[in-house]
Design goal:
Layout lengths: L10 H7 L8 H7 L4 H4 L1 H15 L9 H11 L30 H10 L1 H20 L4
Helix pairs in contact: 2-4, 4-7
Main location: Golgi
Subcellular location: Golgi apparatus membrane
Keywords: Glycoprotein, Golgi apparatus, Membrane, Signal-anchor, Transferase, Transmembrane, Transmembrane helix
């Protein structure tokens, strides 16, 4: 984003220009794969993304449940995740840079973003159900 000059864009400007950090349905397209329709047909891309997640991922996590995600990965993929810290507060995390400024996104802009990213929103809800089911099945609390 820095190289393209988008670093100082507002969310509205980035969204309208479809800047590098503001592409529509990024996660749906990622999980869909490399077929042409993954970029051009959100409905087909969503179906394929769901198929790929169900058929090709041993575990899937959610950032807002980071510690549970780590526990799930440890349980389902112990060779790759042999140890998970007992207390998430013991972990050092990159919390980002505080900009000391409050920026409010208008309700109208939020609605535009949600409409444009409807497939990502649906995919998130789908993944959330799978994640919670996997957590329960593994007896993780």
């Amino acid at each position: 984003m820095i190289e393209s000059g988008e670093i100082n864009d507002t969310i509205e400007q980035c969204f309208e220009k479809q800047g590098q950090g503001c592409k529509y349905n990024v996660m749906t397209r990622f999980f869909c794969g490399t077929e042409h329709f993954c970029k051009s047909d959100a409905q087909k891309a969503l179906v394929r993304a769901k198929e790929h997640i169900v058929n090709h991922y041993a575990a899937i996590g959610l950032l807002e449940h980071f510690h549970l995600t780590l526990k799930l990965l440890q349980r389902r993929l112990p060779y790759f995740f042999p140890v998970v810290p007992g207390d998430p507060s013991d972990m050092k995390v990159n919390e980002g840079v505080s900009r000391n400024q409050s920026y409010v996104v208008s309700d109208e802009m939020m609605d535009k973003i949600k409409r444009a990213n409807w497939a990502d929103i649906e995919l998130y809800e789908f993944v959330k159900q799978i994640f919670l089911r996997q957590v329960r099945a593994c007896g993780i609390s």
